Predict the structure.
Amino acid sequence: MVCVSNGAAAALGRLLVLACMARWSAGVGVNWGTQMSHPLPAGTVVQLLKDNGFDKVKLFDAEDDILGALGGSGVQVMVGIPNDMLAGLAAGAKAAEDWVAKNVSKHVNHGVDIRYVAVGNEPFLQTFNGTYLNTTFPAMQSVQAALVKAGLGGQVKVTVPLNADVYQSPTGKPSDGDFRADIHGLMLAIVQFLAATGAPFVANVYPFISLHEDPNFPLDYAFFQGSTAPVVDGGVTYQNTFDANHDTLVAALRRNGYPNVSIVVGEVGWPTDGVTNANPQYARQFNQGFLSHIASGQGTPLRPGPVDAYLFSLIDEDQKSIEPGNFERHWGIFYYDGKPKYPLSLRGDNGSTLTPARGVSYLDRRWCVLKPSANLADQKVGDGVSYACGLADCTSLGYKTSCGGLDAKGNVSYAFNSYYQTNDQDDRACDFRGLATTTTVDPSTGTCRFIIDIAPSSGAAAVAPRRVAGDVAAVLAAFLLLVKLKGPNRKWAIRFRDSPLHKS
Ligand SMILES: *[C@@H]1O[C@H](CO)[C@@H](O)[C@H](O)[C@H]1NC(C)=O
Ligand SMILES: *[C@@H]1O[C@H](CO)[C@@H](O)[C@H](O)[C@H]1NC(C)=O
Ligand SMILES: *[C@@H]1O[C@H](CO)[C@@H](O)[C@H](O)[C@H]1NC(C)=O
Ligand SMILES: *[C@@H]1O[C@H](CO)[C@@H](O)[C@H](O)[C@H]1NC(C)=O
Ligand SMILES: *[C@@H]1O[C@H](CO)[C@@H](O)[C@H](O)[C@H]1NC(C)=O
Ligand SMILES: *[C@@H]1O[C@H](CO)[C@@H](O)[C@H](O)[C@H]1NC(C)=O
């Protein structure tokens, strides 16, 4: 459907306008990441997308089972290319042609509605130390040429999702926006490419990170209900940081002679656990505020009209790197098992339209806990917790988290259970040198959920490696990884694809 505002449209009257607005508001997309120990079957997730009315999905890779499940679904797809493939694709035409044949053409031929290829993910983050500066743009050009050669040049656009720090404003006013000085020339080459091919500029926008990193950041400016600290920019008053951030990019594009390049918000969202300010109340407030904002169709001060955006994210990922913070594993609007976390209306009204995943099968109703007789002063208890938390997920423990109210024994039990579930309730994973025992009584209290993991799906390609106690090499590798990841750099939404914690 084409939304026009000329004489013909006027003749159709309000109906068309309403239909167009409905289309904008229904047009929200979502990111589907897969760094999880127990992924739901791809078909279950595709059904979840359809049940919830998502008509667009953004992927970080081109996994065969996922693209296979999206065939015939009617869901528009942005496929991703991990950063570690950029150098190979930049090197010559052959690699890109192979990639397009295997990861685009094949799936398009099987009814997958691929609209975009995202070449790399936030490759210009300063924390990457310039690793991808020389290869990202050549890789985009190679993939573009390969798509044209495959006859898909018109239907599949090449772009690159960029972190919002590729543009900035020296004064803080959006209208003074420009691209970062150290990559200015490169950004212009990329924007020129996007303009020439009709592809969008994809930017990831994170008000949560602004708040997380700056205790003086005005809380209400992160949301959409008006701010006591608005930013006044000439005749425009910015009441929320999303609009200001978005319009800083609009201004950067205008300043450099590309006022018409379209913008897609590649990631936007709010996490629910792990640190202060990450909780379901704020996540609901932010996401609902954002969805209502874009459903209104008013756009931003410098770009009135529809906003094209992908929420981050669909489902929690328990194996994401937590180097940026413990919140990293809690961005989902759904828990690991496809249950909604809080009421949310994707249409932008104040109801709830979220539908849980259907037909999820769980492991047995059994948990692993610290034996009541265990002595907390025993050195083996601390060792067990370190071991469990190094390999499983303990990011719901700690100050201002969902399990922050547990006592010391509760903490230990939480860690043991997390490890036990991650290992598919293998008996050997509930031993901890005799300190642990299984129970059929749910230890969950209040907001603290002791999970039961999802049963491994038969035939799933994305089954995570299973580890059991005593696998010394794995523990050592994980420990070294944790040490390696510790550092001063901020790296949200970075995906360490090949770390030993994630995939073997
Ligand atoms: C297709 O994509 C997958 C996932 O990123 C990758 O492992 C594979 O190498 C790609 N195929 C080709 C021929 O490049
Ligand atoms: C970037 O450089 C810093 C300082 O030299 C180093 O500590 C860090 O590990 C590097 N990061 C990456 C991703 O290479
Ligand atoms: C990128 O290219 C420049 C200029 O040729 C070179 O100095 C730099 O080392 C290259 N960077 C990387 C990460 O390869
Ligand atoms: C942008 O679009 C407008 C309206 O279609 C057009 O008049 C203008 O020439 C375009 N500008 C550029 C730089 O392409
Ligand atoms: C939703 O509720 C909030 C807070 O009560 C209100 O400000 C907002 O206008 C409502 N939005 C819609 C679309 O009803
Ligand atoms: C529970 O564990 C968390 C995270 O390690 C810690 O901050 C907290 O102090 C512990 N609580 C008790 C009562 O030991």
Q: What stands out?
A: Residues 90 and 491 are 24 Å apart (CA to CA). Residues 93-109 form the longest helix (17 residues). The domain at 23-359 is CATH 3.20.20.80 (TIM Barrel).
